[in-house]
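Look over what follows to help learners.
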Amino acid sequence: MAGRIEDYALIGDGRTAALVGRDGSIDWLCWPRFDSSACFAALLGTEDHGFWKIAPAEDAATSWRYRGGSLVLETTHETAAGMVRVTDYMPVRDGSHLVRIVEGLRGETAMRMQLAVRFDYGLAVPWVSHNELGDLRAISGPHKVVLRTLVPHHGKGQTTVSNFTVKAGESVAFALSYGPSHEDDPPPIQPRKALFETDRVWRDWSSRAARGTPWDAILQRSLLTLKALIYHPTGGIVAAPTTSLPEDLGGVRNWDYRFCWLRDSTFTLIALMDGGYLDEARAWRDWLVRAVAGNPEQAHILYGIAGERMLPEIEIDWLPGYEGSKPVRIGNAAVEQFQLDVYGEIFDALHQARQRGLRDDADGWRVGGALLTHLEKVWSQPDEGIWEVRGGRRHFTHSKIMAWVAFDRAIRSVEDGGERREAPVERWRAIRDQIHAEVCEKGFDAKLNSFVQSYGSTRLNASLLLIAHMGFLPQEDPRVVGTVEAIGRTLMRDGFVLRYDTENQTTDGLPGDEGAFLPCSFWYADNLIGLGRCAEAHALIERLIGVCNDLGLCAEEYDVTAKRLVGNFPQAFSHVTLVNTILNYSRANGPARERGEGAEGTDRSGGAGAVTPGARAAAARPQAVCAEGQAVSE
């Protein structure tokens, strides 16, 4: 049986990743890419669906940690007879090896190794043989893995097992390597040498991480996690390395997140750039431009890690699902949805990149122009919204705001981009003003003193927490303050913010409930910071960090009833928002202020969407800055 989600660690190589359980079992690995079929899928089923476990043969006390600044995992097992350390890692950017080294630290420890390779998400049992050197070889169709070790092993049923003993000062290594079945076996590696090099690369990279916050350790770990979720050959960042970990334990809210969402683009770019990583930000920006290039009417909300557009969603019935949560889905039907907000994310991402010196080329500008011409035609249409609801299209307030963002950032790119470009700026400005006025008229409920989920609705949605950060209105505009307060009253559950109320408020086309979507709570903290409510923000950040596992990893959501992580793991968006919120708290010009700074909505006057004089005065004051729980503002 799979462990709790928080009882897994992540190791990776810049092309794929594996989940290692606290008990020493690797229960999830897709090879050779994040989106390849899994050869270990016990996470979504049973041991019959593939796993690789190395652990003491008797009961043991277990602890684990990452090496400082690294993605090398060390798990220590202590039995009555001895103590061992198992070191797990994947050589960086290699894409074909997974290494496990067992070292004796004290006494003499009896160990047991069990390997069950099951290709095609646990369906295909491979043909197992040995090559001329005695290495174990498992082949099925196009796939092949080779196990190299000096430890004797044998077949038992359809599993390879080994019982061995490690004494203090001794060590044994296991290297599992992937390659196409029609090619020669992947070349062997030197486990110790590869470990040294892998650890050095991770440490060198993480040494550049931003510092000077109250939470430097978790900040560095989150940036390392984001780095591990980047597909190095293209720069694309997967939302998570897993599929179908449930948002509702035992329910049907199970999705494949091994793809790249455009929605995450600006948040991710800012997290990487402000975290100290311009090269990764540039690669992500370049991936973004390549992915959306083409007919603007065919722009998608998500793409494959190399920019693939055909991501059909299917259900695989041979996997029973994590803790019985079915169906298990491969691919994601949301790729076909119409979501207006992604246009704003694209233009804001490109604008933020330019502001930090990452200039795009002429092709990038032409791609953007084509997208904006299309947006002129479709912004007034209803859409499925940021949360990809499957209950029908609506005029979502957040979606309209993000359409406004697209025109606003395009105008700003022309006006302050330092380049002369032919563009219909006056037409864009007229559309931008029209959207602003419409949102303020139809998306705001005076009785609630809050913006609402969609036009004509009285329901709330956590995406409204982004209004000030988009620059649509100042943070201290009474309508923004009222919205933050209303969301705190309505969507807060045990100290965490829900995306929306699935039971009473929003018909999203799906049965069941879901956990608290962690990025929404980080957005709420950002608003507290912006309003100078530093003590509340500090407490909320501590609460959110507290639900990460003891390695600093967090999932998509937190089940406030079951008190456990739910959803795909680790989730890039959760770590992105964690990074941004820590920097918002700790810096005078944090990501939230940088993103909304200078947008037209903060100083416009006149019309239905007018900003009040008080709000303009608030916007002119220095933003509240928090550090160590203290407000530093005028």
